[in-house]
Amino acid sequence: MRKQFRDTVTELAAADERVVLVFGDISVFMFDGFTKRFPGRFYNLGICENTLISVAAGLASQGFIPFVHTIAPFVTERCLEQIKLDVGYNAFPVHIVTVGATYDYAWDGPTHQAIADMGSLRLIPGIDIVQPGSPAEVDHQLRARYAGGRPTYFRLSDHPHGQTLPLSADRGVVVRDAGAPVTVVTAGPILGNVMAAVGELPVNVLYFSTIKPLDAALLARFAHTRLVVVHDATGLFEEVCEHATGPVTRIGLPDRFVSCYGTIQDIRREVGLDPEQIRAAVAGSLAQ
Fold first, then answer.
1. Are residues 128 and 8 in the same domain?
2. Residue 236: inside a domain, yes or no?
3. Which residue in 36, 240, 249, 257 has the most C-beta neighbors within 10 A?
4. Same domain, yes or no, for 177 and 147?
5. How far apart are CA 276 and CA 102, in angstroms?
6. How far is CA 177 from CA 174, 181, 198, 206, 222, in A?
7. Angle at 231 (CA atoms; ends 229, 236), nearest 5 degrees
8. pLDDT in tens, 29-54
């Protein structure tokens, strides 16, 4: 997905001289082509993430469309005040594009894990939150939103879900409508785990690549069913709860950090997001 971000934003910059990149020493070499084509529109400010946000807000105030990029936990939770005051309250069109979603950098431990980024940012007025699950979704979301005039958080992962879905910037997708009493709600890359888990289980499946604003109209179509959120971070569950008319269950434990320094599969098993664990939990919801 990071390579797709590079390719898409380079094309956008070629067509729109307002596009500028503000980086924090991550992915710099991957963007060599961009810096050669647009040397005056690439700023690598080093490992000073708070400054990235404030500089980007300043650029946006002067009519530029800045994209800030570095690792997810560093530029969200560490920079929450700058995002709130400099970007959110001013409604500046700053786009924050991260890598290292949730447990993608599992081997580096909790300092590099990001499970509360979306849950925190969703509380800031006016900011949109996007979690693409595939390179195609990255490309579509970037093109649809870059000049929309709203601050947006694009949360990219190294583990795409592998599914082919209709593309929409603001609408959810009915992946499966089984007319079932249980509806599994998920977002981003974890859809791959969900589809591997539900198999022949008689459940509906809804998918969202936009967490905020959530497609409440789609969710309302399934409000008569039991909603089960399967997700690898905070944010989606809270948004679903705000729009649901009945109880909502969450599978997995995305609201706690784990001390494991293993693989992403190790940690997903520990927090209950392995496909077999998801299947058992969804089957339990069907039995209620």
1. yes
2. yes
3. 240
4. no
5. 20
6. 7, 11, 13, 8, 9
7. 70
8. 999 999 999 999 999 999 999 999 99
| Spatial separation of the C-alpha atoms in residues 156 and 174, rounded to whole Å | 22
| Omega of the bond leading into 213 within 30 degrees of 0 (cis) | yes
**In this structure, are residues 30 and 23 in contact, taking their beta carbons and an 8 Å threshold?**
no
Strand boundaries in 156-279, DSSP class E:
173-176, 182-187, 204-208, 210-212, 226-230, 248-251
96 shares its domain with 68: yes
Helix axes 2-15, 135-145, angle to 10 degrees: 30
Which of 155, 182, 197 is a domain's end point?
Answer: 155
Mention every residue, 6+ apart, whose C-beta is less than 8 A from residue 221: none
Classify residue 161: in a domain, yes or no.
no
Q: What is the pLDDT of residues 200-241, one digit of tens each?
A: 999 999 999 999 999 999 999 999 999 999 999 999 999 999
Q: Is residue 91 part of a domain?
A: yes
The residues, any chain, with a CB within 8 Å of residue 265's CB and separated by 6 or more, are 274
Length of the chain: 288
CATH at residue 65: 3.40.50.970
Same domain, 146 and 191: no
Q: pLDDT tens-digit profile of 131-147?
A: 999 999 999 999 999 99
Residue 229 belongs to what domain range?
A: 173-281
Its pTM surpasses 0.90: yes
Neighbours of 237 (CB within 10 A): 23
Q: Whose CA is closest to 174, among 235, 108, 225?
A: 225
